N-acetylgalactosamine-6-sulfatase (Sarcophilus harrisii), 439 residues
Amino acid sequence: MATVAMVLGLSLFLGWASLGAEAEPRPPNIVLLLMDDMGWGDLGVFGEPSKETPHLDQMAAEGMLFPNFYTANPLCSPSRAALLTGRLPIRNGFYTTNAHARNAYTPQEIVGGIPDSEFLLPELLKKAGYVNKIVGKWHLGHRPQFHPLKHGFDEWFGAPNCHFGPYDNKARPNIPVYRNWEMVGRFFEDFPINLKTGEANLTQIYLQEAVDFIKQQAHQQPFFLYWAVDATHAPVYASKSFLGTSQRGRYGDAVREIDDCVGKILKLLQDLGIQENTFVFFTSDNGAALISAPIQGGSNGPFLCGKQTTFEGGMREPAIAWWPGHIPAGRGIDFCPGQNISGVTTHSQEEHTKLPLLFHLGRDPGEKYPISFSSLEYQNVLLKIFPIVEEHKKTMIPAEPQLNVCNLAVMNWAPPGCEKLGRCLASPESKPEKCFWPH
Ligand SMILES: *[C@@H]1O[C@H](CO)[C@@H](O)[C@H](O)[C@H]1NC(C)=O
Ligand SMILES: *[C@@H]1O[C@H](CO)[C@@H](O)[C@H](O)[C@H]1NC(C)=O
Ligand SMILES: [Ca+2]
């Protein structure tokens, strides 16, 4: 189901892009608003009781709400790789074969990244005449060959890795922030996140980047804006005017600020008169991180578990499409705290390939009652599933895994541009090793 959603998403974009090119003088602009660890249950429109997302709820009212939208993976990097390539992580290389690990991403010490052989959405759009900008988190590799401007983007303001830390900046470099090809500073040093108060201005900076780009492009070539903000990923943050304004705590403050930004972006498109020529899509890379909740994590509504699990809470994402005039109105870590269901949620990894846990989402959306292995219903569903799995395997050519090898020497010690700023750090000796993925 995950494949279907992501691949369908990509082909819809491309279908529209090429259709637009034939039928109209100008293909539609595309604005992709990608949230970080925001859960299905965080939107008022999905039943979040404090109803603090008026702009997203309005967007849904004016556009199309997708209650069954799935990501391809419940973790940042593989999910984003799938979103931008339209291919499963096992095909695009964003996975690992180390031990039983399934939750691999791209920390600073990762050696791999998005392979050159992949075609990314911005690369295809560029061929169709688009100008492409990424604002915020890339997370598809930070070494020079993985730079977003080498993979179809024309402009970038943001960071290659997750903002979490802080580091003491001797043992590990703080994450750099780039403008286009070069770093312009680092988190904590130049782009502070106050871990105590949760104050950071990053969401406002990212909003300004979006606004400037939209204004610059509004009456030029068609544009693709990939707005990948990360305020809802722990450590969550908000700017001063939003801190303390949510009934849901600091996480809610971050959601409220993003909601406000979404409202401003949609209003800008309307003020510029380009709303009927701009397709806007809102979703999240993975479900809310229950290990960070309640202060630093969101809600997956009625669904089980969250980020880092393949239960509904990890894979099912909030999703809204908006286009006026076109769209009618591992052991030791408990990823499911407080949701102990015998034989379903486990601390250790279980092999389910031969005997998958099946749920009837119609009568049991919370996945609390696995269908009995011995029932006729279970047997009948397996008869449908296994041939599909076999068919899938027949054409499966696994890519070279990108998330197996780590090396402290590849961290962001000396990103391009650091010389100009006098901010290069000395890297340690190169020592490649197997990444430690405990979960
Ligand atoms: C955010 O911006 C305001 C206004 O420029 C400034 O006073 C404040 O120190 C900034 N906060 C952080 C955490 O950078
Ligand atoms: C979870 O449930 C299982 C089986 O019912 C039980 O053995 C285990 O102790 C429970 N764990 C917790 C943390 O409650
Ligand atoms: Ca994420």
Notes: The pocket of calcium ion (ligand 3) is lined by residues 36-37, 76, 233, 285-286 (CB under 6 Å). The chain is about 25% helix and 15% strand. The CA atoms of residues 304 and 311 lie 6 Å apart. The domain at 3-14+27-337+398-434 is CATH 3.40.720.10 (Alkaline Phosphatase, subunit A).
